[in-house]
Amino acid sequence: MTQASSSAGTPAVFVVSPAEAQATALAAELPGTEVRWVADGDQLLREAHARIPQVVLLYSQVPGTPLGQVLGILRQRAELASTHWLAVGSSGLGDLLAAGADALIGDTTPPPALAAQVRTLLGRAAQQTHLQERLTRLQGRLDGWEHDEQVRDQLVHMLVHDLKNPIAAVIGLLQIVEDDDGLSNESRELLRLCRDESQHLLHLTVNMLDVRKIQAGKMNLRRELMFSPMFEEVIELARGDVGSSLRERRVGVQVARDLNPVSADPEILRRVLANLLSNALKHSLSGSAITVSVQAERGGGGVRLSVRDHGEGIPAEDIPNLFAAFEQSRLTLHGRFDTGMGLAFCKMAIEQHDGRIWVESVRGEGSEFFMTLPYAQDPEDGDDDDYAELLT
Fold it and tell me: Is residue 125 part of a domain?
């Protein structure tokens, strides 16, 4: 072995050749580089385990195990990913190139020219190693962030999940107390406010749980064929979910007759509509109108649902991030900050139904949220016996 330097961090070049003279000549041209002579392929396998080379010169006329086979083995080792392999010779280089040699050069190349080529490859290897080390560090930091995010997510899930049942119990108890005939009007109004605020908190916790479920792919839709009467029923249930404050608005419902059926989860749509009604309530004044509409979509592709209010409207700069959880936080007309969690749930839920949701708003005039849901599959396109039975 010819060694110019053996200090830590010194780049290594292996010369796999029939005679040590090739390594000696190259070492003279590469001061500060460790140049090792390797006699054959078997020795190369051993040396590559003991020391990771940055460049390996493979002379084609080497006895023993064919270098093409050896190179094929070494190319599979991850720690040699930054190593450059230079085939040297005038014939028999096809196997080396097929096995993964990076370049080839003639065996009559003068040592200075050969050294220049090796220096270029050493520079590339150093750059690749630096990039790989940086990538490894960044991946480690990313893994750490993902772990921390997962822990935080699990903690939030546990807290929200544990809050859900106590809040529901408080709402039930408030309802019982509110039904007491001996209460004064002032006390009854205070209880109603407490119940509405508790209902709002319950909606927030449920939305947080649902958003997490959808993001994790754990929310399974329980689809049913929904006709006009079921849409009316779902809207009425959603109105009840919002609470007594909705009585302070003039709520109108418009559901087209004889709608073609939509395959959807009625419970999920109920919660979507409850969120949109709650949103309309928060951003409009007492006595104003809120309209819920279900109509056939223009073009005949499905059903269009909408919830319209005549409230404050949405600033144009808020609309792009309106459906992103925690992205929009604006003060409502009633002094409450809106986290946007409910709208984030609406977007994810509608998209799970292969539909879409958007908003049109004019500042000072109100907003209208639109949703589209595709019609259920036609029986001619699939064997849907339930669909056929409902139509007969």
Answer: no
Check: pTM over 0.70? Answer yes or no.
no
Give the CATH number of the domain where residue 53 resides: 3.40.50.2300
Q: Domain span at residue 187? A: 141-214
Q: Taking CA 12 as the corner, what is the angle to CA 9 and CA 16, rounded to the nearest 5 degrees?
A: 165
Helices 266-282 and 341-352: crossing angle, nearest 10°?
A: 150
340 in a domain, yes or no? yes
- Within this chain, do residues 198 and 247 fall inside the same structural domain, yes or no? no
User: Quick one: 276 and 379 in the same domain?
Assistant: yes
Q: Which two tokens mark 15?
A: 């010369």
Same domain, 244 and 376: yes
Decide if 294 contacts 262 (C-beta within 8 A): no
Length of the chain: 392
- Total domains in the chain come to 3
Name the token pair of 291: 């309209």
Tell me, what's the pLDDT at 2?
Answer: 44
DSSP state of 60: S
pLDDT digits (tens, 9 = 90+) for 35-78: 999 999 999 999 999 999 999 999 988 888 899 999 999 999 98
Kindly write down the DSSP assignment for every residue of 111-170, as one continuous string. HHHHHHHHHHHHHHHHHHHHHHHHHHHHHHHHHHHHHHHHHHHHHHHHHHHHHHHHHHHH
What residue type is assigned to position 389 of the chain?
E
State whether 226 and 358 are in the same domain: yes
CA atoms of 187 and 325, how far apart (whole Å): 36
Phi, psi values for residue 380, rounded to 5°: -70, -20
Distance of CA 322 to the CA centre of its chain: 18
Half-sphere exposure of 150 (CA within 13 A, CB side): 7
